[in-house]
Structure formats: C-alpha cells, structure tokens
Design goal:
alpha/beta; Rossmann fold; six-stranded mixed sheet; single chain; four-stranded antiparallel sheet; 347 residues; globular; binds adenosine-5'-diphosphate; 2 domains; binds magnesium ion
Length: 347
C-alpha cells in the first residue's frame, strides 16, 4: 500500500424520494484492494457510478491522483484512468475478442481495419496479464468469467490505474473466481488501486486489504481486513443487534413424518456441515445474509455443482412416508451424482 490515490469526501446524492448517499467518504491507496461493503441498497453502486461519471453528484469532492475531478461521462473517467467492470458486461457478442478490445480505436493498416494487427496486440496484452484467451475467438463463445477478463484487459489497455469491480463474482464459478483473484493480485502488485464490491464475506477476507462499510447511504467506517473478523464487518453492515422474535408454533405436527433429512452436508467452499429435516406438509425457510451459502446449499442437495469429474460430492439421507410411492425405503442413503439421481426419487 502507499499513497492515497482516490479521495471521495462528503458525497451526497438524492434520487426522487431516495436519499441514496448522505455525505459519504472513501479513500483508496495505490496498491491496495479496497472492499466496499453494505447491504443491498446501501449505496455502493451509486457511489461508484458517481466516481465513474455515470451519475452526477449533488455535492462533495473527488480527488484522483492529487487533482480534483468531476467526470460527467464514463468516457471522461476512463480517459483519466478510472474504469468500472460491471456485473452485466458491455461486450459486443458477435465481434471477436480483439475487435471488442479495440472498439472505437481500431488499428488501421492502409486505410483498413487490421484484424491481424489487433489480434497481435491483444495477444501481447493478454501475455502481460497472464490471461489465456484467443483474441480471434468470438466474444459470445466465452464464459462470463472470460468475458470479464477481457473487460479488465480492455481497461488496462486504456491505461486504467484504478479499477472498480461491482459484484464481479456473482456469476462466476469457483475456478473463475480464483483466476480473477490472480489477476487482481497482479494488478495490485503493479501499484494499481482496486475497489471490490462483493457480498461474499469469504472473498473479502481473501482478496482485500481494507474494507469500507456503508449502511443506508452513509459511511460507517473503514477497517484493515486482516485485523477484523467477519462478525465485525457484519455488525457494521447491519448496525443493530438482530432482534429475535419469539418462536411461534408452526402448523406442522411434531410427529409429522420426515420426508427429507440432510446430515453433515458439505460442498465446495460455501457449504460446511449443513443438517436439517423437512417434515411432511412443512414449508422450510432458509435465511441468511447474501453469501451465507443458502443457494449453494440448495444446489448441493441437487448435485448441481458437480466437480472433480462427477465424483460424489456429498451424501444425504432421504426417508419417505410409507404411503408414498417412490423409490427407496425410510432412511435410504442416496449418493448424489447429479440432478437426475434425485428426480428418480421424487425430489
Ligand atoms: N437510478 C436510480 N433511481 C432511483 N433510485 C435509485 C437509482 N439508483 C439507485 N437508487 C436507490 O438508491 C439506493 C442505493 O442503491 P445502490 O447504490 O444500488 O445500492 P447497493 O449497490 O449498495 O445495493 C437504493 O435505495 C436504490 O433504490
Ligand atoms: Mg449494487
């Protein structure tokens, strides 16, 4: 870490009926990955859209590399060296990777666009970033993760020194996230500033140096990642002790038969030792903050995230009401090799 590269002070923004940002501060140093955290609607994206010229601020100041700036368009932010990689990507799917990289500044030879020269330049750029993508591939054929890498390469080729990632990992697989992190670490080591927005607490601990927390459009505080726990961050995000309602008796009888029993389910990095029972006639809710592993648990039950060539990821126990037709007997243990295995058992 080093000098302060970006200083946003007292940023205020209202939309009709919503005070989205209330005098928010943010400081990012060169050579750091800075997490921006907060619950949905806290104002993270709005702050970043103001920084990158997508929205205009009502008041406050932005200083970038020692100069006060106020970008009125994304192009102006980009010219100054600030890029944003959105969750929804802005690539032209029918063009090649290289054509996308050089869109609007195509490399010409004798008055014509030269694909071979653009491919060559793209290859050099990918080489520097350790990205293995064929520049002549059609963009639409790449996975979301690879398209995102092209976005990063594009930003670097336009001399970005500060890159904002707004929830980049939401649509990525674990392998793609690893690849993304490798690139981010590399950029950091080259002295770039990175702002990283994510709900996934595990990622924040792994990839970021500092964390700024926002709540309801206000700045809550900034922590050094290695000195804080996940709970510290969550407490700042939520800002209250969560009130637990007195338990109400459900309408499902205690002796209703168990139709699904999951024991010690673990899968990937997100799902660790999950156990629960679902009874006949019961609607079972799963709650937790974003990134708590709810979706991943559901996917694991269905064997949707098979890895390692389809080996068993986990096992679960299923027992069924005797009156029900279907496979297996009460307490059958099923090894899940994919969604098909469950369909045949009535799940
Ligand atoms: N273009 C817009 N028009 C009106 N309200 C908006 C607009 N963009 C964001 N908001 C509101 O501003 C608040 C902050 O939103 P946002 O910055 O997207 O939060 P976050 O990215 O932290 O989830 C929310 O209440 C949201 O509904
Ligand atoms: Mg957002």
């Amino acid at each position: 870490m080093g000098r302060v590269m970006l200083r946003m002070k007292g940023i205020d923004k209202s939309f009709p009926g919503v005070h989205a940002l209330d005098h928010v501060d943010l400081e990012v140093e060169a050579g750091e990955v800075h997490a921006l955290m907060g619950e949905n609607g806290a104002g993270k994206s709005t702050l970043m859209k103001i920084l990158t010229g997508i929205y205009s601020k009502d008041s406050g100041t932005i200083e970038f590399e020692g100069q006060e700036v106020n970008f009125t368009t994304p192009a102006k932010a980009q010219e100054a060296g600030i890029a944003i990689v959105h969750q929804e990507l802005n690539m032209m799917n029918h063009l090649t990777v290289a054509q996308n990289l050089f869109i609007g500044r195509e490399i010409m030879k004798s008055g014509f666009i030269s694909d071979s020269m653009m491919n060559k330049e793209a290859k050099k750029l990918f080489g520097r970033l350790n990205i293995e993508i064929d520049p002549s591939e059609v963009m639409g054929n790449l996975t979301v993760g690879r398209q995102q890498m092209c976005e990063i390469a594009k930003a670097i080729s336009r001399d970005a020194r500060l890159i904002v990632f707004d929830e980049p990992s939401a649509a990525l697989t674990e392998t793609e996230i690893e690849e993304l992190f490798k690139i981010i670490r590399d950029l950091r080591s080259k002295g770039m500033g990175i702002i990283y927005i994510s709900h996934r607490m595990d990622e924040i601990k792994v990839i970021t140096d500092r964390v700024t927390v926002m709540r309801d459009g206000t700045y809550v505080g900034t922590l050094t990642t290695k000195d804080c726990t996940k709970d510290d961050i969550i407490n700042m995000m939520v800002g209250r002790v969560i009130y637990e309602e007195p338990k109400q008796a459900g309408s499902v009888k205690g002796d209703a038969p168990v139709v699904l029993k999951v024991e010690h389910l673990s899968a990937g990095k997100m799902v660790k030792d999950v156990s629960f029972e679902l009874r006949k006639g019961e609607i079972l809710g799963f709650s937790g903050l974003m990134g708590a592993g709810r979706t991943e648990t559901a996917r694991a039950i269905f064997g949707a995230d098979r890895k390692d060539g389809g080996r068993d990821l986990h096992q679960w126990q299923k027992s069924r009401d005797k009156d029900n037709r279907g496979c297996g007997q009460s307490g059958n243990r099923i090894s899940v090799r994919g969604p098909e295995a469950l369909w045949t058992c009535g799940v």
